[in-house]
Write a structure and sequence with these properties.
By secondary structure, the protein is an alpha/beta fold. Helices cover 40% and strands 17% of the residues. It has ten helices and twelve strands. The strands form four sheets. Strands 4-3-5-12-6 form a five-stranded mixed beta sheet, covered by helices on one side. The protein is globular, with a radius of gyration of 23 Å. The termini are far apart.
């Protein structure tokens, strides 16, 4: 019977991703001899070298390549298993909730959610990783190991979800560039072409509008630096746009040149979380964020002309 040491999973992942005993040791805050010992145990367990020196670097063996392909999901599932609790008392829990999303949504949701957490669950911790293409393309399986993700409708289906309030799109431009002939100007997008199109870009494409995209970034808060002092244009959620112009006086918001359906984001979760008491508390907290805190702050969400 094979004895499995689960404590070797994290060193295994670090070694294969870093391809270096030294860097793996630094990453896990271990001594180099300890990491070398872990590698020796792993080699003995698998009967495989895993890392093979080629000059001044290490290459992965075929088995190591296969292991690396499944390790992130395996480690995340194991860590998620140990985070689960039979009951949930927000006053005493030390649970970590992981909610993925783009920076614009997290900036909107996280502050009021943390406000609730501080008041009701002071020991609870929140993590907000990016909802990148790897997560989105692997839905729903990628939602097993986190508590959920904020995504627009169309990226997920047939899953439990909590709809956020719809939010209009606005154009972010430099004040000196004017608001004319927007469709003929260079645009900055918030999703690289290799990863698809944003809901707004898709709407424009379906109406026969082809934008002249000169740059793309998944980070909404990078946009101001790519627009200031230029004639470039970007479509952003209205709340983000208001945050930007409050801090960057050189920019302003104007209505899109084409009428667009508002953003309809939702918080999506895997069915495995449905009966989890802690997750129920999280969903109730997010409902309050939507209805009480964000709703009161933003009003009725009518599209207005912002100059």
């Amino acid at each position: 019977m094979i004895t499995i040491d689960y404590n070797l999973l994290r060193p295994l992942r670090a070694l294969l991703e870093e391809r270096s005993v030294t860097r793996a040791a630094e990453r896990l805050h271990l001594s180099q001899p300890s990491m070398s010992g872990a590698l020796a145990k792993l080699r003995a367990h698998y009967g495989d070298e895993l890392l093979v020196r080629r000059g001044n670097r290490h290459d992965l063996t075929p088995l190591a390549e296969r292991l690396l392909a499944v390790l992130p999901t395996t480690v995340n599932e194991i860590e998620h298993t140990f985070r689960l609790q039979s009951g949930f008392d927000p006053a005493t829990s030390t649970r970590t909730f992981i909610l993925a999303g783009v920076d614009a949504v997290i900036a909107r949701i996280a502050p009021p959610l943390l406000q609730i957490g501080t008041a009701e669950a002071p020991g609870v911790r929140f993590e907000f990783p990016s909802a990148d293409s790897r997560l989105v393309n692997a839905v729903p399986d990628s939602l097993r190991t986190i508590d959920g993700a904020f995504l627009p409708h169309g990226y997920a289906a047939d899953l439990g979800h909590l709809d956020l309030l719809p939010e209009p799109w606005v154009c972010l431009v430099d004040r000196e560039a004017g608001g004319e002939r927007l469709l003929e100007r260079p645009w900055v997008e918030t999703l690289p072409a290799s990863e698809g199109m944003t809901p707004a870009t898709l709407q424009l494409r379906l109406r026969g509008v082809q934008l002249n995209t000169v740059a793309a970034t998944p980070h909404f808060f990078v946009l101001p630096s790519l627009l200031a002092g230029t004639n470039r244009v970007a479509l952003v959620p209205r709340d983000l746009g208001r945050r930007v112009i409050a801090n960057v006086s050189r920019l302003r918001l104007i209505e899109p040149p084409v009428e667009l359906e508002p953003i309809r984001d939702a918080f999506w979760w895997h069915g495995d979380h449905e009966r989890d008491e802690g997750h129920r508390w999280l969903r109730a907290a997010l409902t309050r964020v939507r209805d009480e805190l964000i709703g009161d702050a933003d009003g009725d969400y009518r599209v207005v002309d912002i100059r």
